[in-house]
Amino acid sequence: MRRLFVDRLAPQRDAIEEAATWIARGGVVAIPTDTLYGLAVDPFSPDAVARLFAVKGRSDDRPLPLVAADVAQAAALGPLTSVGRGLGERYWPGPLTLLVAAPRALAIAVHARTGKVGVRVPRDDVARAICRAARTPLTATSANVSGAPATADPDEVERTLGSRIDLLIDTGAAPGGPPSTIVDATVDPPSLVRAGAISWDEIQAWLHSGFNADRA
User: Fold this and answer.
1) pLDDT tens digits for 166-202?
2) Nearest to residue 120, comparing CAs of 154, 87, 168, 82?
3) What are the domain boundaries of the chain?
4) Residue 119: how many CA atoms within 13 Å on its side-chain side?
């Protein structure tokens, strides 16, 4: 495994490009997110996704979350509903995951045959930059062996997964914190799937006031 030390606030372009190159070649790259470290692969490559499950020792019956560079890249997965786009424009970058319709080209194991996939735009500049360089949303499942605690410590990522992955982008300890709120944006009205960093009451208040006002 190769380990690159990257400035979180001013990420080096060559490191970002190297991460994108590994991903394009089917590699598994550990990246920081706005909470913990995650494992990034191309979600449209069945071989890369299968390798990701093997790295984690995880069964493929649970879907994988995705991260994207911005609203436009998230929408490239498939057209966002007007409510979904509105939520993205309001809360991204930030700890909101939207369930959207999974495109047919996505590796089936990513959405575990549910037909839906979760995507968010993280606050972390490095994660967004890697998505932008890779020109696709990326997986962001936690960088740990299945059943072990997720970690914010890049040293722990190297200790547990160093022999299994290709590259570790090390920006120091990730911030940690509560998980993202998950909202199903494929239904109308949107529904709460998992409570998280953004309260459901706040989202509902925005849906009933801010979103309706924007459409008026």
Assistant:
1) 999 999 999 999 999 999 999 989 999 999 999 999 9
2) 87
3) 2-215
4) 34
Cα–Cα distance, 87 to 185 (Å, whole number)? 9
If residue 182 lies in a helix (H) or strand (E), which one and from where to where? Answer: strand 181-184
C-alpha closest to that of 101 among 81, 87, 115, 111? 115
Topology adopted by domain 2-215: DHBP synthase (3.90.870)
Q: Following DSSP, what letter does each residue of 76-143 receive, concatenated?
A: TTSPPPHHHHHHHHHH-SSSEEEEEEPPTTS-HHHHTTSSEEEEE--S-HHHHHHHHHHTS-EE-EES
The helix (run of H) or strand (run of E) holding residue 39 is strand 37-40
**Would you say 95 and 179 are in contact if contact means Cβ atoms under 8 Å apart?**
yes
Quickly tell me which residue has 């006031």 as its tokens: 209
For residues 27-43, b (16+ Cβ closer than 10 Å) or e, as one string? bbbbbbbbbbbbbbbbb
Q: Which amino acid is at 127?
A: A
For residues 63 and 118, what is the distance between their CA atoms, to the nearest angstrom?
Answer: 8
pTM, rounded to two decimals? 0.95
Dihedral sign for Cα atoms in the order 108, 111, 117, 123: negative
pLDDT digits (tens, 9 = 90+) for 49-82: 999 999 999 988 889 999 999 999 999 888 888 9
